[in-house]
Write a structure and sequence with these properties.
It is a single chain. By secondary structure, the protein is α+β, with helices and mostly antiparallel strands. It has 3 domains: about 120 residues, Beta Polymerase, domain 2, CATH 3.30.460; about 35 residues, no CATH class; about 300 residues, Cytochrome-c3 Hydrogenase, chain B (Orthogonal Bundle), CATH 1.10.645.10. About 35% of the residues lie in helices and about 15% in strands. The protein contains 15 helices and 17 strands. The strands form 6 sheets. A 4-stranded mixed beta sheet has the order 1-4-3-2. A 4-stranded antiparallel beta sheet has the order 9-10-11-17. The two termini are about 25 Å apart.
Length: about 500
């Protein structure tokens, strides 16, 4: 997406050919990214879409599947486990069941929820009926079954922490099984996009996850630009890259402070919060928004950010960050709590769809900025750090390396920033579609946008990194212990809002 958009290929796939097509994917280079469904004709006819990554420097394959009414669609989750959550989400929101789904229980709809019509069905929107029922959990059997205790924690938690319920099965301090129940405050953001103008959609995208406003707006606008065959001006592409790295910087600094808090390194926690605050103040002086909102729009930027003096402010922040990260990596009491905590092996990370710093800490060398470049990333040297340990310390190391990379990249952008316009007309063609992506601070983020015949949005699908990483997180909690849980969760850098779209 640097300059002219990368061309993606839409392939018609018959339902009966899905399993064979799925088996043909090369697991080393190919990876399924997401799946979703929609109702393109405004009636009961449903269409499935699968987005497939075939490797670096290529477009994405988009599989289009149109099952006949009553035709069984086979679950692909036994072959590609990361699709399990997507299939369950499709069943909950669009009403399409999958045969032989290994986890047929609801995902988004809480136990006891009944929908007269699926929430995303284009017909009359009827409210959900809800009769509280216990959350589904597996049976715990074996010789220690009588000693196993069950602890439901949440959904109301301390302070302003987002709503989620964690259910633990444990003996003493040992966690045998863990189940996170999310979606208590599902906001139906994808449905909110329906029938609004493409310009208004940017405002919604920026508010899907407050700490990822730039990444969401960027992926959404690039999807619209692909639908409109719109080429963004060069200066706008570079400034978009600048905004994306400013967002990565304050997110990772906040992460380090929060992680230090869970290991009881209180001074480091306070300093991390301070550095994150200083980064947000730089954002405010540059754009008028601490969270970098209201700049990115279809076709470029709404206005010029104030980059005067930005280089000096970034350098001053770098001078403060450097000793902070050195001390984190030299504090034995901190490292003792991170090393070997929450290990995630490479195969599980791949199978379950881990993304961003989580997958890179487990040996998967993937980053959309380099592998499928957008904005100005193709014209910038980009180091992608990776580790093999897959534990809490490796996840911290990835963030620290990315902080220093972002600082260097920001200075290079300011040196190379071209002159010129920052916006061009971008009006998607009616009945068009586009796919956009960005590498957010938490990982890969995708927007699939379908424009209706009237020029308004007909369907917007959001694949957020926290949706992927919440799916993989339980695999690091099973057979762990209670004392490490908070540290492990903090090391993932998860958000509930990013998952509960």
């Amino acid at each position: 997406m640097s300059g002219a958009p990368i061309k993606n290929v839409i392939r018609e796939v018959a339902v009966d050919d899905l399993l064979a097509r799925c088996r043909s994917l090369d697991g080393s280079d190919s990876r399924m990214q997401l799946a979703y469904a929609w109702f393109p004709h405004g009636d009961d006819r449903i269409e499935l879409r699968y987005i497939v990554n075939l490797g670096r420097d290529t477009g994405f394959d988009i599989w289009c599947v149109r099952p006949q009414p009553g035709q069984a669609v086979p679950s692909l989750a036994p072959l590609i486990p990361l699709l399990s959550w997507y299939e369950r989400e499709i069943t909950d929101l669009c009403g399409l069941p999958f045969s032989d789904q290994p986890q047929p229980q609801p995902l988004v709809l809480l136990a006891g929820a009944q929908a007269p019509r699926p929430p995303l069905h284009p017909g009359v929107k009827e409210p959900l009926r809800y009769t509280p029922q216990p959350t589904w959990m597996p049976e715990i059997a074996g010789r220690n079954g009588d000693n196993v205790q069950r602890l439901p924690f949440g959904p109301i938690r301390a302070g302003v922490v987002e709503s989620v319920q964690f259910i633990y099965y444990y003996i003493g301090e040992g966690i045998l099984h863990y189940y996170p129940q999310l979606f208590f405050k599902h906001r139906g953001m994808e449905q909110r996009f329906e029938n609004v103008t493409p310009e208004l959609g940017t405002v919604l995208a920026e508010r899907v996850s407050g700490v990822g406003s730039v990444a969401h707006a960027l992926a959404y606008c690039q999807a619209l630009e692909a639908a409109a065959s719109c080429t963004v001006p060069e200066r706008a592409r570079w400034l978009r890259t600048l905004l994306a790295e400013l967002e990565r910087l304050y997110n990772h600094l906040h992460y380090l402070g929060h992680l230090a808090d869970t290991t009881s390194l209180k001074v480091a926690a306070a300093e991390g919060a301070l550095l994150s605050e200083l980064a947000k103040q730089i954002n405010a002086r540059t754009t008028g928004s601490r969270f970098l909102r209201s700049l990115i729009c279809p076709g470029g930027l709404r206005r010029e950010p104030d980059v005067g003096g930005l280089s000096d402010r970034i350098e001053q922040l770098r001078i403060q960050i450097a000793p902070y990260t050195r001390m984190l990596e030299a504090s034995t009491s901190h490292l003792d709590r991170l090393i070997t905590t929450g290990p995630l092996d490479r195969q599980t990370a791949f199978d379950q769809g881990a993304t961003g710093p989580i997958e890179r800490a487990s040996g998967l060398d993937r980053d959309l900025r380099r592998d499928h470049p957008y904005a100005a990333y193709a014209e910038l040297p980009l180091e992608v750090p990776a580790r093999d340990a897959g534990d809490g310390n490796a996840r911290q190391q990835i963030r620290i390396a990315e902080i220093h990379n972002s600082l260097r990249m920001l200075q290079r952008i300011l040196l190379m920033l071209p002159e010129g316009p920052i916006r061009t007309e971008c009006k998607p063609t009616p009945s068009s579609e586009g796919l956009g992506w960005s590498e957010s601070p938490r990982g890969s983020l995708f927007y699939a946008v379908h424009v209706g015949a009237d020029g308004h949005l007909a369907r917007v699908k959001i694949k957020s990194p926290s949706f992927s990483n919440w799916c993989v997180f339980p695999f690091t909690v099973h057979d762990s212990n209670m004392m490490d849980y908070a540290i492990n969760e903090a090391s993932f850098g998860l958000t509930v809002a990013g998952c509960d779209r």
